[in-house]
Every structure is written in C-alpha cells, then in structure tokens.
Design a protein that fits this description.
The complex is a heterodimer of chains A (about 1000) and B (about 120). With about 1000 residues, chain A is of the alpha+beta class. The complex binds zinc ion. Zinc ion binds near residues 63 and 66 of chain B. Zinc ion binds near residues 6, 8, 9, 60 and 64 of chain B.
C-alpha cells in the first residue's frame, strides 16, 4: 500500500474521491493537522491516525469514532469559531472540515489522554444502572447540594457556550406535492420518478453529497453506470429541474401531523469564512401532500467486552472512509460480523493493500459468494467464533477469539476492528408520523406497519432487500404518489447490478457477553449502558421497555439510541424470556438528530421576539426623558425624572402635583371594546355583575366581569353613548382575553342577542387629566360640551370636540381627584396631548407615569385586577359587593358565587395595612401571620398585594388579602421578614379623602 | 402544525390562525343560578378528555373570528369533521364508517359522547 503523508499517514493514494492537492488545515486540541477538501472531521482525524477523540459520559472511558454518519454516539467534539459562535457536542462524522477549523475534545480533564475522571471506570461497580435513584437518596438535602452537582460535573458531554449566539438563522415555509426524505439510491430514484411527472418535488439529504450507501458500495451499477456516478448525475439532473428543490446538508428532524415535516439545512457550518449576511442554518417548514421516506438503514455494532475501544468501528463506516475519503482505518484491521455485509468492507480494505488478518463470523456455516471471495483473497475466515474481548486502552491492540460455545482462546494483534451485527431499518420518521411499526420475525427487525399519514417508505427503511427491489419500489412510489396529486406521467424503470442484501445478523449480546458474564459490553456508547445494565434493570423489576430505558438511560442520549435500541430491547426480552414484540419498542420522537436552539428560535430574538406596542404619545414621553415599563407588549411611561431625581423623588413629586394642581397621564393602553346593537345592554347585563339596562345615556359605570366560577376576571369603566351603544374599557393586559370571552358568550351562549363587538383599543388615544385644576385646564380647548358639575357630573360621558377634533370625553377618576379621560382618534393623540400640556403647564400640570398612577389609586383603595386579585378573589372578597346587581337572575358567574366555599367564612378579604413605623414600606407578596412567635412553619393568614410610599399621606400604605380581614379592622398583625418582624395595623382600604369629596370638585 | 378547516370560511388554514377553546357541547343552563352543586360542578369542571374521538371547540381567532366545533381524534390528531356552533353533534359511527352504517344493528351504536377506551 502506498502512503500519502501530507494529508494524513493513513490516506491511501489512488483510493477515494477527494483531490489530494486540495488540502485543508485544522486543529484538534491545539494540534495542527491537515486534511482534504471534502473530509469530515472524522475522516481527517482517521487519516492522521487519530482514533481517540473523546471520553465517555459516565465512566470517562476513551472513545473513538464508531460510524461515518449522523448516528455517531461517541465522537462528539466542541467546534469554536469565536466566543459567541461555539457549538458543543458536534458529531465529528457530520462536521466537514474547513481551513482554520478549531476542534476540542470534550468531557476530559486535564487532557484527553490523561483524564482524571477515568477513575469512574475503576469504581464502576459502584455506578450501575439506576445508581442515581438508589445510591444518592439519603440524606435528602444532599441531593441538591452535594450529589447532583458532583455527578453533573463528573458525568457530562460538552460545555454550554457562555455567550449569546451571534449567528443568524433563517426560516422558510414550503409546500410541495412530494417530499422525499433521503438521497440514497431509493430516494433519488423516487424523486426522479415523481419529478418526471411534473409534480413539485423537494428532496433532502443530511449528507453534503447524495448517494447514501452508493458512496461506498463500489460494486454497484445503476443504469449501466457505477452507482456513485449515477447518484451524482441524478442529483445534478434533479437540480436542473424547475419543479424540484434539492436540499443537501439538510436533515428532516421531525414529522408532524398532516405531512408537516421540519427540515434544518446547515448552510455555513462547512465554510471557512461564511459571509456575515449568510445564515448559519435554515429551518424549512414543509407541508407536503405526499411524503416518501427513503431513510435507509443503520448498521449495528457487536455487543462484546470492551467493544468501545477506539479503533473499533462499524464495517460500513470503514468502507465509507476507504472508498469515499481514501482513508484506511488501520493497517491491521480485524473484522467481526454476524452477517454478510462486513465481508464487502474486508474485501475493499484488503484490495486497497490493508492487512486483514481475520474475519470472525459468529455464524456456524455461513455461505455466500462474498465469503468465498474473502477466502480467495487470503483472509482467514473463522466461523462459529466470537470476539470475546478487545485489548488495548486508548486504541484497540488485539482481539481475543474463541469458539461461540467456549474453548481455546486465540489472540490476534490488530490496530482496528470493524464490525457488523446487521442493519436496523431507520423507521424513526415513520414512527414520528405516528405510524405503527410491525415486527419482522424472520429478519428480527421492526418495519413500517400501519401508516397514519399520507406517506410511503421505500428501500432499506422499508426492509426492501437488495438494490433492484429498492429501486423498483422507489420508482413505483414516486410515480404513484405524484399521480395521486394529479400529475400523471411515464416513469422510467432503473436497472441495477451488485449491492449487498441488508438482512439478517444478530441482535443482543454476542457470545462472551451473555447473562452469566460481568464484562463491559456496551449497548449504548453515549450513555455508557452495558448489556449487564439492561439485565440489572430487568432484575430490578423493569418489565416494560419504557421503564428499562429510563432506568438504564439506554437510548436517551443525543443519538437517541440509533445503534443501541434494538440491542437493548433484545437483551431485555431475553432476560424477561418474552418475545421482542411483547416487550415493545420505545416511541421515536423528534428530533431525529439534535437541532440547534438557533434554528428553532430563528428570527424571534431581541426586538423580534414579541411585537412592541407604543402609544401615539410615546415619542413625547421619550423626549421628556420618561423611564418606560413593559406592561404586556406595551411600553408605558413609568415616571418622568427631572434633573437629579431618582425614581422615588420623581414619583413623590408627580403624586403631590396631581393632588395639588393636576397631572396628565397616557391611558391609551386601556383596552376598549365598542358594544353596539339593540341588545347591547342585555348583553352587558349577562357579561358583568352590574345592572346596565337602566344606566342613562351619557353615564358611566364601573363594571366587574367574572368567570363562570365566580372569580373576578376583569374590570373597567363602561360608558353609555346611546341606547344601543356602549364604550367598554378593560384592563391594559386583559383586553384581548376579555374580547375573546365576550365573543365566546355572544357567539355560543347568547347568539339570540343582536349585538356587535369591535375592538377599538388602538383607535382611541386616551389622555387622562386629573386633579383640582383639571377642568380649568381643558375647558378652553373643549367645544360643544358643558363641563359644569351640574351638566357633567362625576361618572358621565359626552361627545364633542377638543382642539378641533372629535372626542369622547369621560369624566371619571382613577386617582380620587376630579378629572377627565379624553378619548380622541389615535392619530390626533399626540397633538391633543401637547395642546393640553401647553395649556396646563402654567397651571402646574405635571405628566405622571404608571408608578404614580399606582400609588394614587392605592391611596384611594382602587384595586388593580391581577395585582390585588389573583384569580381566586370574588367581588365580596375585594369589597365590591356593591357592584353586583341585586335583582339580576343571570350573569356569568352568578352560580359560581353561590358555591359553598365562596360564601363560607374564612375567606381572604381585601383590607388596608398601616405599618406601625410609618416609614417602613412592606414588600409586595410578603406573608402575614397573627402570631410572630409561633414555631416555623408559621400559619400564614394572608399576603400583601400592593404597597407603596405615599407622599400625600406622609407614610407607607398597603393593601392585603387577609383571612376574615374585614372582621380584623384595628387588629395588629405581623409580617415576618428576613431581617425582623414588621408590625402592621389592619385598616380600611381608603387612605386618602375617605369621603370621596374631591371627585366632585 | 395542524391544518384546520374553518366551517365559516370553508378553507383549510394553518393552526396558527386558530385557538382551541376546550370541550364542545357543554350546555350552560338557562336557569344556571338554580342549578344543583352536582350539575354545576359537571358543567364547570368535569371534562371527558378521551383517548380517541373528542368533540372540541375552536376559534378562527386570526381569521373570521368565529367559534366552531370539531371532532378530532386525540391520538392521531386527525379532524373527522368541523361544524358550525349550534349545529347538532354529528354521529360518530357515520363519521368513522361513512358507507357501512346501517340501522339494522342498533346494538352497535355508540353513545354520542366518546368515552375513554371506547375507540
Ligand atoms: Zn374562519
């Protein structure tokens, strides 16, 4: 064999499809290495003779590269472009190399070759399956503080990046007639056949190149061409068709209801210098009328002692490394198999000049042309034997061979071992589509059984043995499914020669790793689950595969058991002495392979995470230097600090100004619903506790809305503009759900009512002017409305004009002061606001924000739904019994309010609290007790709902929900806090202007 | 993402346009304030949540805004039918076997409300 050293000592000249001149430089744990363009990280490492690439999850055992595809459980590495573009747990078998690629191994300290955590391997008898649940149960507190952090530190994979991801991710919705998943022989044939009819086709494949197994099955021809050439040409001709979208490096990760399939396309992970405007990945959300699954099969490893040593790989992987990448996985390669397909790999290696000292075949008398061919090449084929153990630590150095039934052991020196226990059809997406798999007893495998969606499986994933059968099936499916979507056309048959039948083999533990042994024969490499662990789970009473899976964590790692599930199932079934289908197969769930958060989150980050709603006066507030707070999606002016003021000082000034002169407040975010129609009043009677029929035109009323269970849902002031027209306001946060609630009842419970509902929240800007000078300020601006107390008393509404624009002028108050809420069409909001402000400024008109609004309303005991109520508070609890229409026979919540628990004593009721020390401000949410000297845990009788410093009262004020609160007026209660107990007196909820005289000023 | 047909728009639209609104055919009594505790509890709290066919309400909230009813298989997520609010509950047997339903086998008729384990 001739060695080509500059791209790795194991690269064989004249073998593979990469171009020797196109070299690529990358680093692995700081070591500079050279590979070739088109290499995966795995092929480039193997070319350089590197098998040891990581440490295992639990025992920190040295691990190498098992596969050449996305099923890889072991070779997980960390790829870092810079601090913010760092990806842990990248499969070396999937990552393509590029100039400057920087790779680090994971889960080792201080270095990959000397890992202190490997001591776990020595102590492994103490870490059997289920050890989490058993060993660390006592004492209870130690789990959170000692065991869990230690275990998590010792066992693990990659490290989460510390900085926000600066990569971009894009998103596309797509529709097609036929979606083909998989670009191997079957997928390409199906796509071609469907495309020939004119149907709109999308075909995706997770690899950089299409072809699947054709990339390494060198003995295959299709249509008279070598298989790989046919695949490349077919892909090119598909790309050239207008009705076909070809997506390589694209994984179908999830199959959802109604043929909705999630794909993720890796766009720049293989590029040395991706453009800054180039997304890293693109999420495709495809709705396909028909889906063809051509997802192939995955080779299984053999389960024997120390089968996890670096240098032990799947036979098909070794063949791919050789025939695609020109890399020999070793110089002395042993073969261990239970089926025919590994022979092809052995023959290819031998022909490439690699020493293949032995093929160990567990079958007693296998017969097949490939076996004869191997023998004729001089390879020692030993049948009826098993590899009982692998020698070597950081790289396999030998294998011990014995007859299956025991006997003399023979040791063969190797530097790599390739293995095949058989092939597992990839039914992952089929199962995700909620199809039911069926057990193929003859071949010991699960195949697509009952379909739940409009899809068809073709080729190896459908158990179709042999290339010709797979192609025939694929061509037929492509034509048929396209035909069902309305595209009839002729499809051309494809003729194939060669190829390996992907059948038979073995599942479960191999000889030497059976029930009577204690060897470490790994079933699930990534989660360090051995055959012994699975048997232990059965002994511990786990009889369902779902329980075995959770007890052992078999199949629960990031590879989701692609190589391990069937082995685990077979071992459990054997231990249970039940047939495999009776033990069951765990459900396959999305994603097929790990998907980045970036692809899912996509554009929904930062400003695009959620819409931001701004009022028409927003820019004015910002220009005044207002601080904003988020209320739902709204930005609301919180307070307006002047030079040198902190929040506290600003809020105090604003609160005092409102009571002494006047304040101006942006109330535009209030929800507004126009309720119109001959039955509008009747409708409101049913939706609110209050009576509405007799509310006069031009009058306002505070309304309370309940849910059917009797608890407060929302509140707001409602104005009657005409017999058949109401202007309803809701809380800022409640507007959408109140609208939905109203629509629900109108459409489904009270459809006989002739009423129309329209959301008008964004149609009106609302300017609240509150305070003793409010009328004086707005009077000169208002036309056509008599503002006198007599003509327009508190709680009335008039339509007229202000500053020349139409207005609905509400005389109402959420501050306890006389005041107005000026509704004007939103487009005039800012102009009217500015005009009112200019007019009022010389009179002391002060802008105030939501914080001052909260303090002012609390001084008056006005509740905020959602702050002073929490979904378990009735109107009676909140002191609002007066708002319930006594003579009403029906409204939403009327029956709920009669529930026994709601009328019983001992309910929490809303009261005021005054701290004994007027300067102490309680914490909202603080718990209240009757006796602070009782032992812990104390009996809590309530909690603080609202609490503020009130500059107008010269003291702190608070509201609280307290058991039997209204019977406790004058009582002293206690609020235990970390730094001492606070004494409070129970009071009424009104702290300022108890008689409410200022409202009518 | 499901595709849902709105019986008012008579169009299949993506699930994003809809909001589920819980079990269908719960009847709010016209004399609700006189309802017994048991009857009110059944109305307020008790839901079928069957594994299989369920009658449920949806709102085409980002479309026409209408509430409507649907029969959906909670295992496969398949919609068997949608119908307008106020229309009678469709017969499950007819939906499942549109061709083979016969009045000759009344014993096989299912109760109108799908129950756990029934399907
Ligand atoms: Zn609609």
């Amino acid at each position: 064999m001739s060695i080509q050293s500059h791209s790795g000592s194991n690269r064989i000249a004249g073998v593979g499809r990469l171009v020797p001149a196109k070299t690529v430089r990358f680093t692995f744990d700081g070591q500079s290495l050279t590979g070739l363009e088109g290499d995966t990280l795995a092929s480039a490492l193997l070319a350089n003779g590197i098998h040891l690439v990581g440490r295992s999850f639990k025992y920190h055992r040295p691990r190498g590269i098992l596969s050449a595809g996305s099923e890889e459980p072991n070779a997980l590495v960390d790829v870092e472009r810079d601090k913010s573009r760092k990806q842990p747990n990248v499969r070396a078998t999937v990552q393509e190399i590029y100039d400057g690629l920087q790779v680090k191994s994971q889960n080792r300290w201080p270095s990959l070759t000397f890992d202190i955590g490997a001591i776990n391997d020595v102590f492994s008898p103490m870490l059997p399956a289920g050890f989490y649940y058993k060993t660390f149960m006592w004492p209870k507190f130690a789990w959170k503080t000692i065991y869990e952090p230690k275990i998590r530190a010792a066992a693990g994979l990659g490290v989460v990046p510390g900085e926000a991801d600066t990569d971009r991710y894009s998103n596309r919705f797509a529709h097609c007639d036929v979606l083909v998943v998989g670009g191997g022989a079957a997928g390409l044939a199906a796509a071609l056949s469907a495309a020939q009819t004119g149907a709109k086709v999308i075909i995706c494949d997770e690899q950089a190149e299409a072809g699947g197994a054709l990339r390494y099955e060198t003995d295959v021809t299709i249509d008279g061409k070598p298989g790989y050439d046919w695949a490349t040409e077919t892909l090119a001709s598909l790309r050239a068709l207008e009705n076909v979208t070809v997506l390589t490096r694209t994984t179908a990760f999830g199959y959802y209801a109604q043929n909705f399939v999630g794909l993720v396309e890796r766009i720049s992970d293989h590029l040395s210098n991706p453009g800054s405007d180039m997304p890293r990945e693109r999420l495709w959300q495809v709705r396909a009328r028909k889906v063809i699954l051509a997802t192939g099969a995955i080779e299984r490893h053999m389960v024997f002692a120390n089968n996890d040593r670096p240098g032990i790989l799947l036979a098909s992987a070794a063949r791919a490394y050789l025939n695609q990448y020109g890399v020999a996985v070793g110089r002395k390669v042993g073969v261990y198999t239970a089926n025919d397909s590994a022979y092809a790999a052995a023959i290819d290696l031998k022909r490439a000049g690699v020493d293949v000292p032995v093929i160990v075949d567990t079958r007693d008398n296998p017969s097949s042309p490939v076996i004869e061919e191997a023998r004729s090449l001089g390879i020692d084929v030993v049948t009826g034997h098993a590899v009982f153990s692998a020698g070597g630590k950081r790289r396999v150095s030998s294998i011990s061979i014995r007859p299956n039934k025991g006997g003399n052991e023979r040791k063969v020196v190797v530097d790599a071992l390739i293995m095949s226990a058989g092939w597992t059809p990839s039914v992952h997406l089929f199962s995700q589509s909620r199809g039911k798999v069926a057990w193929d007893a003859a071949n010991e495998r699960f195949l697509p059984g009952t379909y739940a969606q409009d899809c068809v499986s073709v080729g190896a994933c459908n158990g179709s043995d042999g290339l010709q059968q797979a192609l025939d099936e694929a061509v037929a499916a492509g034509g048929k499914l396209a035909g069902e979507t309305g595209f009839k056309g002729k499809t051309a048959a494809l003729k194939a020669t060669g190829g390996t039948d992907w059948v038979l083999g073995m599942i479960g533990s191999a000889p030497g790793a059976g029930a009577d042994t204690t060897v470490k024969a790994f079933v699930d490499f990534q989660n360090d689950v051995t055959a012994k662990d699975v048997r232990l789970a059965v002994r511990e009473g786990m009889h369902s595969i779902e329980h075995v899976k959770r007890f052992t964590t078999n199949g629960m790692a990031t590879d989701q058991g692609k190589t391990s599930n069937l082995h685990g199932l077979a071992i459990a079934a054997e231990a249970l002495n039940r047939p495999i289908p009776a033990v069951g197969l765990t459900t396959f769930r999305a994603p097929f392979t790990p998907v980045t958060f970036g692809a899912i989150v996509n554009h929904a980050r930062h400003d695009l995470f959620d819409p931001t709603r701004r009022t028409p006066m927003h820019a004015w507030h910002a220009a005044q230097g207002a601080a904003f707070e988020d209320v739902g999606q709204w930005k609301r002016a919180w307070y307006y600090p002047q030079a040198g003021e902190d929040m506290h000082a600003a809020v105090n000034r604003e609160c005092v100004a409102v009571r002494n002169q006047a304040g101006i407040f942006d109330a535009s975010t209030l929800g507004k619903i126009e309720v119109v129609g001959p039955d509008a009043a009747k409708f409101l009677e049913l939706l609110y506790t209050n009576p509405w029929e007799k509310l006069g035109v031009g009058r306002l009323r505070y309304g309370i809305m309940l849910r059917e269970d009797g608890f407060i849902y929302d509140d707001g002031v409602v104005g009657r503009l005409a017999e058949d027209r109401f202007h309803v306001t809701t809380t800022t946060g409640g507007a959408p759900r109140v609208m939905n609630h109203m629509e629900d009842y109108l459409q489904t419970e009270f459809p006989h009512l002739n009423v129309w509902l329209t959301s008008t929240t964004e149609q009106w800007a609302v300017i609240a002017v509150q305070g003793p000078k409010a009328r004086e300020i707005i009077a000169p601006l208002v036309e056509g409305i008599d503002l006198s107390n007599e003509a327009m008393p508190h709680m009335s509404v008039r339509e007229g004009r202000i500053c020349g624009v139409p207005t609905r002028l509400f005389r109402m108050s959420f501050t306890g002061e006389a005041g107005y809420e000026i509704n004007v069409p939103a487009d005039y909001g800012r102009a009217v606001w500015e005009a009112v402000y200019e007019r009022g400024k010389p009179l002391g008109l002060t802008p105030y924000g939501t914080e001052a609004m909260h303090v002012l309303r609390a001084e008056k005991g006005y509740i905020i739904v959602g702050q002073d109520t929490d979904g378990t508070v009735t109107p009676q609890d909140a002191g609002l019994t007066w708002a319930i229409g006594k003579n009403k026979t029906d409204y939403v919540g009327i029956r709920g309010l009669l529930r026994r628990d709601l009328v019983a004593d001992g309910r929490k009721q809303l009261v005021g609290l005054k701290t004994k020390d007027a300067h102490v401000v309680l914490e909202e949410g603080a718990q209240i007790v009757a006796n602070p000297n009782q032992p812990v845990p104390m009996t809590m009788i309530g909690h603080v709902t609202s609490s503020y410093w009130s500059q107008n009262c010269g003291r702190s004020i608070a509201m609280a929900l307290v058991i039997d609160g209204t019977k406790r007026l004058g009582e002293t209660l206690y609020v235990p806090m970390p730094d001492g107990v606070i004494e409070v007196e129970v009071t009424g909820t009104v702290f300022f202007d108890k008689k409410g005289e200022r409202l009518n000023g | 993402m499901l595709l849902i047909k709105c019986p008012y728009c008579e169009e299949e639209r993506p699930e994003l346009e809809f909001r589920n609104a819980g079990e269908a055919h719960l009847v709010r009594s016209p004399a609700i304030s006189e309802q017994s505790d048991e009857d009110f509890a059944a109305f307020l709290y008790f839901r079928q949540n069957p594994k299989g066919l369920q009658f449920e309400r949806w709102r085409h909230i980002h479309g026409c805004g209408r509430f409507f009813n649907a029969v959906r298989d909670s295992v496969s997520d398949k919609f068997l039918t949608v119908y307008k609010a106020g229309e009678p509950r469709p017969d499950v047997e007819t939906l499942l076997n549109p061709e083979t339903v016969s009045d000759a086998e009344p014993a096989k008729k299912r109760a109108p409300r799908a129950k756990k384990g029934e399907l």
